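User: As part of a screening pipeline, I want to sanity-check one entry by hand. Below is the sequence and the SMILES for adenosine-5'-triphosphate. Please return the complex as structure tokens so I can compare it with the automated output.
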Amino acid sequence: MTDTQKPLAIRCKGLIKVYSTKHSEMVVAVNRLDLEVKAGECFGLLGPNGAGKTTTVEILEGLLSPNTGDVELFGKTWAQDEPWLRERLGISLQHTHLPERLTVRETVELFRSFYAPRGRNVDETIDLVALKDKEDARFETLSGGQRQRLAVACALVGDPQLLFLDEPTTGLDPQSRRMLWEVVLAFKLQGGSVLLTTHYMDEAERLCDRVGVIDHGQMIALGTPKELIESLGGQQIVEFTLEDGVEVNLEPLGALPSVHGARWHTGRVSLTVSQLHEALPALLAHIDGIGGKLTSLSTHHATLEDVFVNLTGRQLRE
Ligand SMILES: Nc1ncnc2c1ncn2[C@@H]1O[C@H](COP(=O)(O)OP(=O)(O)OP(=O)(O)O)[C@@H](O)[C@H]1O
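Assistant: Here is the complex for your manual check:
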């Protein structure tokens, strides 16, 4: 089967989900969302708190019903093919409560028993999430990172074709985050498809073939991390502040050599730049010319965070 003939791992069209709150207010959590994830792809849904990521993922996982819209996973629907889908999906929710008194091994064995005869070997799964030395430890004694890896082991032990990971590394230390990234990359190498949500741009850039940026329940940008960053028009971001009293006009800044955009961002001026060695001398001369004095100046490689700021004027993690 060629790639174009393979059913998509995820296809959803026109999803809308409206919640009504205790005070009878309506919250549009997902607003006409379309999404396609290819088999074998790792797709990242990025967005700030409350953007609608978890709601979208829970609809795709068959845990919530949308008000309207269609969902197909591998060409199957929740209404017609729930048992087939349940066997082929691995789900790690944002918060997982596993039985406190069960050990790591007992927990993985329990989840493995749900999937018989399909499923992975328990030892291999525990190894995969690097919990071998903790296999006899009870859940209640595990650290946050170990608990999260155990949740991912439970999602993997059914040998899924599609893995849902909702903010898998939120709150983890850098080493635990990297360990989880390795697990996801290994799963992908074996041909698995992944949908993950994250606030972390480095995570998205490292793991995801494509990302969708979601805000107020709508997809506002879609592409590979590289494409989205290139859409800024420059690979570098220069940010600076000046001493009070000097008025900064963005228009002439945007016209400096190699500068592709200028905007205010959290009290600083932020420039999107292609060639630092051209832009910086021109910027310094300009600041001198308007009688300004720099109080800070920094540069960094453009990230997906900058893409989001550029699209919305806000930061992902405000
Ligand atoms: N059960 C609910 N009842 C009412 N409103 C809800 C409910 N669940 C979510 N919402 C609202 O729907 C919107 C989207 O929430 P959702 O949890 O999907 O966002 P998110 O992008 O996953 O955010 P986070 O990154 O904080 O988890 C938010 O405004 C949230 O307050």
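Points to compare against the pipeline: The longest strand covers residues 26-37. The mean pLDDT is 90.
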